[in-house]
Specification:
Elements: E1 21-23, E2 33-43, E3 50-60, E4 64-66, H1 68-76, H2 85-100, E5 104-114, E6 117-125
Antiparallel strand pairs: 1-4, 2-3, 3-5, 5-6
């Protein structure tokens, strides 16, 4: 399992410890799971203003699937954290990959426009797919 040094909670514990899994009932089959999180919030580290976004997670599981309530609690841990879009998207991606070890995973983060500029960040595992 890859170590993730990107995201820790306020007590210095890894955030990915919040993520729970369950056994994939169809490990011999390739299929996609898509999870949309339309109410994601974090805080702009420059202004302190809230950032709002939609996260879309699409993955092909191997042996494990993510338990949704734990995913919700994990994502809520970013609610008051000052973090740039690029950093948080890559950190969430790394935590999911480290926890699930999926065959593939794509995370797309679409953030609400601020000052006339909207931002989308997409990261994939394995890279280049």
């Amino acid at each position: 399992m890859a170590e993730n040094k990107h995201s820790e909670n306020k007590h210095g514990e890894p955030k990915h410890a919040l993520l729970e899994t369950f056994a994939n009932q169809f490990p011999d089959r390739d299929y996609a799971i898509e999870i949309e999180c339309p109410e994601f919030t974090s805080v702009c580290p420059k202004t302190g203003q809230p950032d709002f976004g939609v996260l879309t997670i699409r993955y092909t599981p191997d042996k494990l699937c993510v338990e949704l309530k734990s995913l919700k609690l994990y994502l809520q841990s970013y609610r008051n954290e000052g973090v740039f879009y690029e950093h948080l998207t890559n950190s969430i991606h790394d935590d999911l990959v480290a926890t699930l070890q999926p065959r593939s995973l794509e995370l797309r983060a679409d953030f609400t426009a601020r000052g006339g500029i909207s931002t989308s960040v997409t990261v994939r595992h394995p890279a280049g797919k």
